[in-house]
Structures are given as structure tokens and as C-alpha cells.
């Protein structure tokens, strides 16, 4: 999996380091929703069974494979 420097910093400095990389892989491969932002970045959402089905948002660069960020999205409604 390719990641940005921003993603790596967020894993070190934030409360996001506990997000399992396998969950990110799962959302990228099998999203429940996808949206392309005006800047070309791709938002994908997926559920995480280990977190009682809460939604994880993964933002990819326009290349569709480089992870920019990942976080739980409390506002997302399918």
C-alpha cells in the first residue's frame, strides 16, 4: 500500500495510530460508498465489523491507490 507523508505523520502524532491497516485495505477494496472530490481525491467509506460496524473513511490521491488519510466518520450515512 502506498501512503503519503501526511498519512505517516497522522499515524505517529494523532489518535489514529490504532486504525488497523487491514481495515484500510478492506475499505479500498470493497467500499460501501465512493465520492470523487473536486480536487480529484477519492473518498471511500466502509464498515469495520470490529468497531460495531462504524464507518471508516479512506481518502486516496487521484491515482486511486495512494492513501492520504483514514479516520472514523461519525457523520457518514449511506
What's the overall average pLDDT, rounded?
Answer: 94
The helix/strand order is: EHHEEEE
By DSSP, the count of extended strands is 5
Helicity, in percent? 10-25%
Counted by DSSP, the helix tally is: 2
**How many discrete structural domains?**
1
The rough form would be described as: globular
Radius of gyration: 12 Å
Give the end-to-end Cα distance, rounded to a whole number of Å: 26 Å
SSE-based structural type: alpha+beta
The stretches of 5 or more residues where confidence is low (pLDDT under 50) are none
Biggest sheet statistics: 5 strands, mixed
Please report which band the strand proportion falls in: under 5%, 5-15%, 15-25%, 25-35%, 35-45% or over 45%.
Answer: 25-35%
Sheet with the most strands: spatial strand order: 1-5-4-3-2
Kindly summarize this structure in a few lines.
The chain is an alpha+beta fold.
Topology at a glance:
Elements: E1 2-3, H1 5-13, H2 21-29, E2 33-36, E3 42-48, E4 54-60, E5 66-72
Parallel strand pairs: 1-5
Antiparallel strand pairs: 2-3, 3-4, 4-5
Amino acid at each position: 500500500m502506498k501512503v503519503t507523508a501526511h498519512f505517516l505523520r497522522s499515524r505517529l502524532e494523532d489518535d489514529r495510530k490504532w486504525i488497523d491497516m487491514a481495515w484500510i485495505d478492506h475499505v479500498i477494496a470493497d467500499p460501501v460508498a465512493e465520492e470523487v472530490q473536486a480536487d480529484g481525491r477519492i473518498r471511500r467509506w466502509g464498515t469495520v465489523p470490529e468497531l460495531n460496524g462504524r464507518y471508516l473513511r479512506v481518502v486516496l490521491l487521484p491515482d486511486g491507490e495512494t492513501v492520504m488519510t483514514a479516520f472514523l466518520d461519525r457523520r457518514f450515512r449511506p
